[in-house]
Amino acid sequence: MAPADTRRRLALGTAIAAVATAGSLWFSLGLGLVPCTLCWYQRILMYPLVVVLGVAALDRRPDVYRTALPLALPGLGLAAYHSVLQATTARCTLAGPCAAVQWRAPVVGLTIPNLSLLAFSLLTLLLVATWLDGR
């Protein structure tokens, strides 16, 4: 794998994580939506990825998957669970309104957990591709 490919892939991952982080802050600070328990866990896993992937992109470090995948994979699982929970029930088992739809994208109809699932999926794909190219 060429170093330029690694740098582009990691820069794209940084951009995805940064947009997801900014979006979550906009939902809570801009729109005044209160994050549920599952949203908080997803934020805890997403926010450090901005820094981890950003530093890795600057250093062209393809071995960043060792640090980033342990954040992205649980985030992917939580976002998938949250999306399924929201689609199938009106209550959350973690003592919060996790299944409530507080916002829906006007054009495509994605909810906040769906957007988180999309971001974590893209990040996981980029990190796995980086890992496989480095082998």
Structure characterization notes:
The protein is built from four helices and no strands. The protein has 135 residues and is mainly alpha-helical. The protein has a single domain, classed as Bromodomain-like. The model has no long low-confidence stretch (mean pLDDT 86). Belongs to the DsbB family. BdbC subfamily. It is found in: Membrane. One of its GO terms (cellular component) is membrane. The chain crosses the membrane at residues 12-34, 40-58, 112-132.
Just name the CATH architecture: Up-down Bundle
Order of helices and strands: HHHH
- Structural class assignment: mainly alpha
**Cα-atom Rg, whole angstroms?**
15 Å
Total E-strand runs: 0
Give helix % range: over 70%
Terminal CA distance reads 9 Å
Number of domains: 1
* Low-pLDDT segments: none
In the CATH hierarchy, the third-tier topology is known as Bromodomain-like
Supply the CATH class.
Mainly Alpha
Biggest sheet layout: none
Name the overall outline: elongated
Strand composition percent: under 5%
Number of helices: 4
Q: How confident overall, as mean pLDDT? A: 86
Protein name: Disulfide bond formation protein B
GO cellular component, one term: membrane
InterPro entries: DiS_bond_form_DsbB/BdbC (IPR003752), Disulphide_bond_form_BdbC (IPR012187), DsbB-like_sf (IPR023380)
Organism: Haloplanus rallus
Write the layout of secondary structure elements.
Blueprint: H1 3-30, H2 37-59, H3 65-88, H4 112-134
Helix pairs in contact: 1-2, 1-4, 2-3, 3-4
Transmembrane segments: 12-34, 40-58, 112-132
Organism: Haloplanus rallus
GO molecular function: protein-disulfide reductase activity
